């Protein structure tokens, strides 16, 4: 909480025009190239703060579905939400008008709840609505505590902030849309994975566990948090091709004949065929995983018989997560194995069925994986 207290903020003189230009140039290039919503919001908040010499600046975005204003980044503050019709931000938004306040605590519209949460003291405030390209309200820009000696925001501040808002509006709209699309993709992918799972009557949380294990393996292998999250989101689809396998094979209580097994093996090619046309990153990753999760390190897997690092890292990771979960679970054709037996199999198959480095990673983070197994037990 320490950095949240406003201990004697340093006072500043109003900026000269060339200083403003320098700030604008700096942020224009950052904002134009930023696709990530969180970072974009941070750049916009920074730009607003630097331009009008506010101590803090934040962007509150309107979430219509939940009738809330939310902000991902305010200076020194984590994600916050508030009802869309409370506080100064809510007022500016509902009325579509700018608000100047000299002392927030003397204004009945001010909602001191956020100060109470953060330990910050709000005094002067400037809030302006942000409109999208169609003139609809997307949210508000809110600046708090002017750092000049007189301590109040002026008309010029409003004009500068409006300029900053209209400049960033387009980047913001497109980042919001990307986020919406990505969220939708995640939901669709997870639902499709569940459909595949229910078709093959496998244990309820299998796709969820495979997703969680895959993320842990990816992180501990050294992939970035972002890529690890991508694997987590995409891996529930690994067996989507099973939707095309006839019931009498899929649900056969005993061992499959050679012919039945080769029909079953088609699920990886079928899944790939369903997913491969998309250009979206998540679906492309899901396609790779559906295709390659039964490849083996020594080249004896299917469908392509890829060997070693020719198997995509997503495929190598999901293979371990999937087989681990298959072995420690009951299947229609087998009982769950004891953990010791499972661990022995992974040790024996190190460098044969599985990437040896990933087996090491798997053994190293076994505790974490077992905790997830409990958390997502059926
Ligand atoms: P699954 O049951 O989810 O198994 C996924 C993978 O875990 C299997 O891929 C295999 O690599 C591993 N696995 C599962 N059970 C065992 C086991 O008892 N011993 C060993 N060493 N590994 C095991 P695989 O073999 O390519 O099979 C793909 C899918 O084909 C399986 O998914 C399952 O749906 C089906 N399947 C495989 N064998 C049989 C069978 O004998 N009977 C039936 N009904 N289905 C089978
Ligand atoms: C308000 O808008 O009234 C409170 C929000 C804040 O202080 O950040
Ligand atoms: C499933 O994903 O529904 C279980 C079968 C497998 O992992 O291959
Ligand atoms: Fe599979
Ligand atoms: Fe599976």
What does this structure look like?
By secondary structure, this protein is of the alpha+beta class. A hairpin with a 4-residue loop joins strand 1 (54-63) and strand 2. It contains 14 helices and six strands. The relative contact order is 0.08. It has helices at residues 17-32, 37-52, 87-95, 113-118, 155-199, 206-221, 225-234, 247-250, 258-275, 281-292, 313-328, 339-348, 356-364, 366-375; strands at residues 54-63, 68-71, 80-83, 99-101, 125-131, 137-146. Strands 3-2-1-6-5-4 form a six-stranded antiparallel β-sheet, with helices on both faces. It folds into two domains: 17-177, 2-Layer Sandwich (Beta-Lactamase); 199-375, Hypothetical protein af1432, CATH 1.10.3210. One fe (iii) ion binds at residues 210, 238-239, 322.
Q: What is the percent of helical residues?
A: 40-55%
Strand content: 5-15%
Broad CATH class of the largest domain: Mainly Alpha
Task: Kindly report how far apart the N and C termini lie.
Answer: 40 Å
Name given to the CATH homologous superfamily of the largest domain: Hypothetical protein af1432
Q: Give the ordered list of helices and strands.
A: HHEEEHEHEEHHHHHHHHHH
Bound molecules: ligand C2E, succinic acid, fe (iii) ion
Number of strand segments = 6
Q: Number of folding domains?
A: 2
Major beta sheet, strand line-up: 3-2-1-6-5-4
CATH topology value of the largest domain:
Hypothetical protein af1432
SS-derived structural category: alpha+beta
Overall mean confidence score, pLDDT: 88
- Under the CATH scheme, the architecture of the largest domain is Orthogonal Bundle
Please tally the helical runs, counting DSSP H or I stretches of 4 or more residues.
Answer: 14
Low-confidence stretches at least 5 residues in length (pLDDT < 50)?
Answer: none
Radius of gyration: 27 Å
Shape descriptor reads elongated
The largest sheet is: 6 strands, antiparallel
């Amino acid at each position: 909480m320490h950095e949240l207290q406003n201990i004697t903020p340093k006072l500043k003189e109003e900026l000269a025009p060339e200083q403003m230009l320098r700030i604008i140039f700096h942020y224009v290039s950052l904002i134009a190239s930023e696709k990530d919503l969180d970072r974009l919001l941070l750049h916009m908040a920074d730009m607003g703060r630097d331009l009008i010499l506010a101590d803090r600046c934040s962007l509150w975005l309107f979430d219509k579905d939940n009738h809330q204003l939310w902000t991902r980044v305010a200076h020194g503050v984590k994600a916050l939400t508030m009802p869309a019709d409370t506080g100064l931000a809510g007022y500016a938004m509902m009325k579509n008008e700018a608000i100047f306040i000299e002392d927030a605590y003397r204004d009945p519209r001010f909602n001191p709840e956020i100060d109470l949460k953060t330990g910050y003291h709000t005094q002067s405030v400037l809030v302006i609505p942000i409109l999208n390209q169609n003139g609809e309200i997307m949210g508000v820009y809110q600046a708090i505590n002017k750092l000049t000696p007189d301590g109040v925001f002026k008309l010029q501040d409003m004009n500068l902030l409006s300029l900053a808002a209209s400049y960033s509006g387009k980047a913001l709209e497109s980042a919001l849309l990307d986020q919406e699309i990505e969220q939708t993709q995640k939901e669709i992918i997870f639902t499709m994975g569940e459909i595949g799972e229910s078709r093959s009557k496998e244990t309820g949380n299998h796709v969820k566990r495979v997703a969680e294990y895959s993320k842990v393996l990816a992180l501990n292998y050294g992939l970035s948090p972002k890529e690890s999250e991508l694997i987590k989101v995409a891996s529930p689809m690994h067996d989507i091709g099973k939707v095309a396998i006839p019931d009498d094979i899929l649900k056969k209580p005993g061992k499959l004949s050679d012919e039945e097994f080769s029909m079953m093996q088609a699920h990886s090619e079928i899944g790939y065929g369903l997913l491969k046309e998309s250009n979206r990153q998540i679906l492309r990753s899901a396609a790779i995983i559906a295709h390659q999760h039964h490849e083996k390190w020594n080249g004896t897997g299917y469908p392509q018989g890829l060997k070693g690092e020719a198997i995509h890292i997503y495929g190598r990771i999901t293979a371990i997560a999937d087989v681990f979960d298959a072995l420690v679970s009951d299947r229609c054709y087998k009982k769950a194995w004891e953990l010791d037996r499972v661990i022995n199999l992974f040790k024996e198959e190190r460098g044969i069925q599985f990437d040896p480095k990933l087996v090491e990673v798997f053994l190293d983070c076994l505790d974490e994986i077992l905790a997830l197994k409990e958390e997502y037990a059926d």
